Amino acid sequence: MCINILLGKALPVYGDGQNIRDWLYVGDHCDALATVLQRGRPGETYNIGGNNEVKNIDLVYKLCDLMDELASELPIRPSRELITFVQDRAGHDRRYAIDASKISRELGWQPQETVEGGLRKTVEWYLARGDWWQPLLSAEYQAYYGKVYGKIHG
Prior knowledge:
mainly alpha; Rossmann fold; two-stranded antiparallel ribbon; 7 helices; globular
């Protein structure tokens, strides 16, 4: 979504955007994995969740607003104009929920970021790291991606 906003491309949102997901900032996810590796019991399963259930459309709105605030040169502003509702996937669950109480109870892990804080850090990262994401747009990378993942899916 960040890259699409930077390029002025459509932001596809499934169905009516009312699907709910539990959002977790990548830094919190990494911290949870490290906690499990360091303190978890071998053979146990620990669900990692953000305790941040948000409708997809609300997350996209927040992301658009942050991009409008932080990105000085956007091809389309406000970026909410890029939102495009697309047909939902067949059998797509309306809500995915994570019960992360075990990792909290047994290992003392809790996410540190709010949805807003994590999104802000994510947008700032994309804005500062064009050197990382711009090569992903090249024809060479797209051919590589198709070759690698084409084998998996077909």
